[in-house]
Amino acid sequence: MAYRFTLGGENYRFNDLKSVMAKASSHRSGDVLAGLAASTNAERIAAQYVLSELPLTVFLNEAIVPYEIDEVTRLILNTHDAKAFEQISHFTVGDLRDWFLQDATEGQNIAVIKNALTPEMVAAVSKLMRNQDLIAVTSKIEVVTKFRNTLGLKGHVSVRLQPNHPTDDLKGILASTIDGLLYGCGDAVIGINPATDSPDVTINLLNMLEDLRLKYEIPTQSCVLCHVTSALQIMEKAPVDLVFQSITGSQKANSSFGINLNMLKEAHEATLALGRGTVGNQCMYFETGQGSALSANSHHGVDQQTMEARAYAVARQFDPLLVNSVVGFIGPEYLFNGKQITRAGLEDHFCAKVMGLPMGMDVCYTNHADADQDDMDNLLTLLGVAGCNFFMGVPGTDDIMLNYQSTSFHDALYLRKVLGKKPAPEFEAWLLKMGIMDEKGSKLNIGENHKLLANL
Description:
- By secondary structure, the chain is an alpha/beta fold.
- 43% of the residues lie in helices and 11% in strands.
- It has two domains: 3-138, Annexin V, domain 1 (Orthogonal Bundle), CATH 1.10.220; 145-433, Aldolase class I (TIM Barrel, Alpha-Beta Barrel), CATH 3.20.20.
- The strands form five sheets. It has a four-stranded parallel sheet, with helices on one face.
- Helix 7 (93-101) crosses helix 9 (119-126).
- It is globular, with a radius of gyration of 22 Å.
- The termini are far apart.
- The model has no long low-confidence stretch (mean pLDDT 97).
- It is an enzyme of class 4 (lyase).
- Substrate binds at residues 160-162, 193, 287, 362.
- Pfam families: EutB.
């Protein structure tokens, strides 16, 4: 179905729903690369007018990726909560935006309808919002998850300790892990991206982290971010807390990652059966990123932000402990500069949170992007205000294995201090017991005889 709008005496025509969605998106290099972006700001505004007046029911009747060929579309439509949708079925996209922003609409009101919202609906709403709108809505929302500690509580922000090493050297990774713990990082997860997908290496890394956790009674979880099939292969031989997988918003793109929904279901059930959690047993960890489907030529003519939101439907199906976008990691071909990375990070966080996901963010960029650490400071702070569940803690911000720039252990201290936020409660108690932090969240001086450094 074609859509039309007249603006300033000029007529604009959009061939179908996905064209309206793409043209209404904020300018970004990935959509330009795909030939989907609005050619002028006027065309973008015309598309936003069209989008604002579309009934939400349109998104249930016009699939942007055909139902017959795509299991993600089938998942979205087959799991849609029709009963909860009755509350908002009369809304247009503009009405939903206004409802989100009303003072009377609180986080629990949004939670009631989360399964009535398709990814395309929330992506559409985000295209009508300024940055402050995205922040205002998500600051209302609390998404709490549990494994060995409690993540996502209001007033708290957590950190994934990311001690990657280019050769998976155990001593190097252990040194970075200890360093991060001494800065109060690691409550979200101690998560290692292995340099190879070797099962033996993965087992060795997991055993090392398990020994450390048990020795010092650290209330957190570990994860080696190997492929889901590798995790299934080693599950009976290694202490697997969480199963990780990168996901995206179309069946074809997920196939390029070597996965499908049945495979994720198998991994989820197998990990649940291990029962390794203590305060809860949410055991999946997913990463996403705008541009991943386009980079696999599997975007079906859909703009990258909407395709990203569709990945959240996949994540939502498996009740994850952690989800994060690696917002600037894929490169300037998809998000060219700091402004585009900032906008994408706020959009991704908004879409995931209103869909009920425990969203974190890898606030990052590659060295050939038109961005710098000041841009990352800005986005980190904005997302902290927005209530993002967790961030990355990378030694010195520089991941020497993945060769990109992220946020550091020091950045976590900064964010908690300026926003008055704390680590996960169980982890905070451990930091106090270990003499790493004081009651105000300030880092204590660590001498060479500190118990975390002794007898390693």
